[in-house]
Amino acid sequence: MEFWKQLCAEHGISPEGTLEEFATSDADRKDVFFYQADDAHYIPRAVLLDLEPRVINTILSSPYARLYNPENVYLSKHGGGAGNNWAAGYTQGEKLEEEVFDIIDREAEGSDSLEAVEMQVKDKNQN
């Protein structure tokens, strides 16, 4: 979430996705990391996914909760995660592959010219 907070600050985008008064220029290329919805809100080009809800629920209960597209948030229906067990996470992840790839595909198709994908992994011990 710190990554998106920093991008919002740099581009003058409020936690609700609206432009701050000082950020009216298009020269800063907001469209690289955000897309503009029909209601003029800026939405991160992001997919949030996890097998357990703790980290994503922290994001969704923060002041930045309205920034993200709810269709691009995926939590495992089991809700318990893999308990830091690689094999369990691999097995659960394999079952979710199609659903997750559908979300990623939909987000990628919304781009005019996809050039890169950045993946960030939040460790349970990070703040």
From TrEMBL:
Question: Cross-referenced InterPro entries, in alphabetical order?
Answer: Gamma_tubulin, Tubulin, Tubulin/FtsZ_GTPase_sf, Tubulin_FtsZ_GTPase
Mind listing the GO biological process terms from this record? cytoplasmic microtubule organization; microtubule nucleation
Query: What is the protein name stated in its UniProt record?
Result: Tubulin gamma-2 chain
Q: One Pfam family name from the record? A: Tubulin
Protein source organism: Schistosoma haematobium (Blood fluke)
Which domain of life does the protein's organism represent? Eukaryota
What GO CC terms are in its UniProt record?
gamma-tubulin complex; microtubule
Q: Carries keyword Transport?
A: no
Q: Which family does it belong to?
A: Belongs to the tubulin family.
List the Gene Ontology MF annotations in alphabetical order.
GTP binding
Keyword terms, alphabetized: Cytoplasm, Cytoskeleton, GTP-binding, Microtubule, Nucleotide-binding
